[in-house]
């Protein structure tokens, strides 16, 4: 029997075959620290918590978000741009056109929001803006490590790494 709903949930493969973009990737975590401190650690201390395994240059790399750019500098001074900051309200959110490991002319969108919870800062990372069709399915498949990456951010604050939940 066909679905009763015209927009029934699809797998990412079905969405790509239909020419649609895959769904958003969303990771949520709670950090037991004030919002401004958490935001500043995410942006200013990214080089301290970003896993070297998710860089182009590996150990010794310096990951940064500064002057509207997101990227890394290798220990030999070589630069790799991962994206650009497109919108920001310090302490509240950071939005980036994300191109790490992809073509610069086909960025996706990463938005990280920070809000106050009861005794914690709630952090929500949303990755979307995929291309339509097969390219979008490839982007969606490529960028699947966010729970591990933001888990390292949680660990930076002494939280267990699996505290980042996806969905």
Would you mind describing this structure in some detail?
- The structure is a single chain.
- The chain is of the alpha+beta class and 167 residues long.
- It has one domain: Alpha-D-Glucose-1,6-Bisphosphate, Chain A, domain 4 (2-Layer Sandwich), CATH 3.30.530.20.
- Helix content is 25%, strand content 33%.
- The chain has 5 helices and 8 strands, in the order αβααββββββααβ.
- The protein has helices at residues 12-17, 35-44, 46-49, 133-142, 146-156; strands spanning 25-31, 62-66, 69-73, 79-89, 93-98, 108-117, 120-128, 165-166.
- Strands 2-3-4-5-6-7-1-8 form an 8-stranded antiparallel sheet.
- The two termini are 28 Å apart.
Summarize the helices and strands and which ones pair or pack.
Elements: H1 12-17, E1 25-31, H2 35-44, H3 46-49, E2 62-66, E3 69-73, E4 79-89, E5 93-98, E6 108-117, E7 120-128, H4 133-142, H5 146-156, E8 165-166
Antiparallel strand pairs: 1-7, 1-8, 2-3, 3-4, 4-5, 5-6, 6-7
Q: Determine the fraction of residues in helical runs and give it as a percent range.
A: 10-25%
Q: What is the overall shape? A: globular
- What proportion of the residues form beta strands (DSSP E)? 25-35%
The beta-strand count equals 8
Q: Main beta sheet: strand number and arrangement?
A: 8 strands, antiparallel
Return the structural class. Answer: alpha+beta
Spatial strand order of the main sheet: 2-3-4-5-6-7-1-8
Question: Ranges with pLDDT <50 over ≥5 residues?
Answer: 1-10
Give me the strand/helix succession: HEHHEEEEEEHHE
- What's the CATH architecture? 2-Layer Sandwich
Number of domains: 1
């Amino acid at each position: 029997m066909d679905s009763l709903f015209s927009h029934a949930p699809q797998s990412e493969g079905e969405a790509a075959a239909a020419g649609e973009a895959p769904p958003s990737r969303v990771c949520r975590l709670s950090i037991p620290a004030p919002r401004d401190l958490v935001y500043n650690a995410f942006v200013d201390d990214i080089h301290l918590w970003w896993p070297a395994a998710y860089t182009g240059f590996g150990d010794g790399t310096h990951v940064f978000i500064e002057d509207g750019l997101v990227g890394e500098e290798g220990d030999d001074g070589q630069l790799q741009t991962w994206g650009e900051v497109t919108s920001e309200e310090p302490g509240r959110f950071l939005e980036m056109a994300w191109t790490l490991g992809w073509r610069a002319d086909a960025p996706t969108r990463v938005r990280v929001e920070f809000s106050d919870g009861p005794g914690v800062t709630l952090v929500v990372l949303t990755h979307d803006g995929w291309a339509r069709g097969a390219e979008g399915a490839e982007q969606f498949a490529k960028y699947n490590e966010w729970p591990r990456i933001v888990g390292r951010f949680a660990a930076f604050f002494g939280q267990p790494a699996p505290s980042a939940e996806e969905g």
